Amino acid sequence: MGLGDKRLFISIAAGGLFLLAAFVGVAWFLIAPRLAEFHPDLPGAVGLAAVSGFAVIAIGLGLVALSAVTGQRVLFSQRITATVIRVLFPFVLMLAAIVGIGKDAVKRSFIAVNNALVGAGRDTIRPGKVLLLLPHCLQATSCPHKITGGLIENCRGCGKCVIAGLLALAHEHGLALTVATGGTLARSVIGEIDPAAIIAVACETDLTSGIRDSYPLPVYGVLNERPHGPCCDTTVDLGRVDDAIRFFAEWCDGQGRGRAAEQRG
Ligand code: SF4
Fold it and tell me: Which of 158, 234, 235 to mutate to test the pocket of ligand 1 (most atoms within 8 A of CB)?
């Protein structure tokens, strides 16, 4: 995903923050005389609190944007980064709806920002297992084999759907792989495996909620393709999954620990 994908989420958040600040400023100007009737210092105190609140959010957003665009971790804590975009997401979605921007475009941009932040903060990822989390809709509807809930090895590798290729990638790189039928199963698998990071394949809506639910666990999102409509015989570009696996593999296995240490100097 290019810079353009990330720009949409960041631009709406920045524009919305500016509008909200202007609105609060006007409201403060109108109610300041009433506040002064209670205490002469009250308008100043309320104004200072509002300015401080906006300054914190604006600085947080600025650092997130810088981190996402440069690919460098500029915030000392990934948890702060996660909190900033988690807080901003519903606000951005609401503003986008008001100005007529589609939800999926905003969610794709959010996923691009998230992936860039995961990349920027990769030296903070602890060594450990990487989980490849797949949606059930990737399996061919005509396939008679049950592969969900830990039964992925039932796949016969016939090649009728992309599961065979994903299974081969998981074997090649030593990844844990699960096909989940929903959020509850996905959460229980994550709790069981306790991965260091997740590569999740899904649609815009499921990826967005999965990424937000899993914070601060790093989740790299790869969008699926839906040539037959949503939730039915979907597919995914194996090259993009392979890129994500290679990115995590070099940081989460033994070699990755060495590289991470090198990077930290
Ligand atoms: S590749 Fe595996 S999951 Fe897909 S249709 Fe063949 S056996 Fe079923």
Answer: 158
- Ligand 1 contact, 158 CB (< 6 A): yes
pTM of the model: 0.82
Q: Is 68 in the pocket of ligand 1 (CB under 6 A)?
A: no
Q: Is 147 in the pocket of ligand 1 (CB under 6 A)?
A: yes
Q: Ligand 1: which atom is nearest the Cα of residue 158?
A: 6
3-state SS, 76-124, equals CCHHHHHHHHHHHHHHHHHHHHHCCCCHHHHHHHHHHHHHHHHHHCHHH
Question: What domains appear along the chain, each with residue ranges and CATH number?
Answer: 3-118 (no CATH), 125-264 (3.40.50)
The dihedral through the CA atoms of 135, 12, 61, 120 has a sign that is positive
Round to whole Å and give the CA distance between 220 and 116. Answer: 9
Q: Is the CB of 140 under 6 A from ligand 1?
A: yes
Per-residue pLDDT of the chain (265 residues; tens, 9 = 90+): 444 588 899 899 899 889 889 999 999 999 999 999 999 999 999 999 999 988 888 888 888 888 888 877 776 566 666 677 777 888 889 999 998 999 999 999 999 988 988 888 877 788 788 999 999 999 999 999 999 878 899 999 999 999 999 999 999 888 899 998 887 888 888 888 889 899 999 999 999 988 888 877 889 999 999 999 888 999 999 999 998 888 777 665 544 443 433 433 3
CA 103 to chain centre: 15
Q: Is ligand 1 within 6 A of the CB of residue 145?
A: yes
Beta strand extents in 136-196 (DSSP E only): 176-180
